[in-house]
Amino acid sequence: MKAAEIAKKIFSLGLWANLLAMVLVVVLLCFGVKYGIDLYTHHGEKIQVPNVRHKSFADAEHILDKLGLQIAISDTGYVKTLPPDCILEQSLVPGQVVKSGRTVYVVVNASSTPTLTIPDVIDNSSYREARARLTAMGFKVGDPEYVPGERDWVYGIKCKGRLVGTGQRVPVDAYIIIQVGDGRRDLSDSVAYMEAEPVQYEETEEVIIDGDNPTGNEGGAEEVDEFEVVTSPEE
Fold first, then answer.
1. What's the alpha-carbon Rg for the chain, to the nearest Å?
2. How far is 23 from 14, CA to CA, in rounded Å?
3. Nearest to residue 139, comparing CAs of 168, 162, 111?
4. How crowded is residue 106: how many other Cβ atoms within 10 Å of its Cβ?
5. Segment 59-113, tens digit of pLDDT
6. What percent of the chain has pLDDT over 90?
7. Sign of dihedral through CA atoms 128, 132, 134, 135?
8. CB under 8 Å, gap of 24 or more: what pairs does 18-23 form?
């Protein structure tokens, strides 16, 4: 290829147009990535999380929505003095600076008292084991009530003065009382066994006497070597 042809191709309009287009694509891509990331991450935005505790869920949702924040229920609780559907706790601390689109998780007040199920601890565990298990489940356990029985053994559970059984549900804010054995038993709880005295039988020698010879010596019947039991019919 001649030098003139090479120079002609280098300085051709098509080649320079392609190079310019490639440069423009690279520049636009760099600006797009930069501003796209800033837009996606809401660079420069600063939203202060408001305090929505003790507000109704509808009011809290309205307040957060105006600021560009979301709200979601994570759990429920119960406070007797507060109205139902009231916000008890929020995940993002009031005053925390966040960006739009963040979700604030809240705990709302239940409309009725939650209940818990009595586990299988009655006549199945010691007092220490039962108390630890009930406390871990969220029960409020009061002082134990001692009853006659094996020491530290669980014989029953009371709630509001009445006995409750395994599987029954009781209010979470009610105190339960564990009935525990005090180490003593009623006489009716055990059977007294008495050792019977051995029966002793006396061996007696019985002689059959002939009616004609009352003495039974001379001319009478002979003495019986073996013992014989004689029974007379009842009159």
1. 50
2. 14
3. 168
4. 24
5. 999 999 999 999 999 998 888 889 999 999 999 899 999 988 899 999 999 888 8
6. 46
7. positive
8. none
**Residues in contact with 143: Cβ distance below 8 Å, sequence separation at least 6, in sequence order:** 177
In angstroms, the CA 53 to CA 62 distance is: 14
Tokens of 213: 């010879």
Question: Which tokens in the block code for residue 16?
Answer: 């320079």
Which of 92-99's residues contact partners 24+ apart within 8 Å by CB, and which partners? 92/49, 93/49, 94/49, 94/50, 94/51, 94/52, 94/53, 95/48, 95/49, 95/51, 96/48, 96/49, 97/46, 97/47, 97/48, 97/49, 98/47, 98/49, 98/69, 99/41, 99/42, 99/45, 99/46, 99/47
C-alpha span between 109 and 80 (Å, rounded): 9
CA nearest to 140, candidates 121, 122, 157: 157
**More reliable by pLDDT, 10 or 28:** 28
40, 24 Cβ separation under 8 angstroms: no
H or E element in which residue 98 lies: strand 97-98
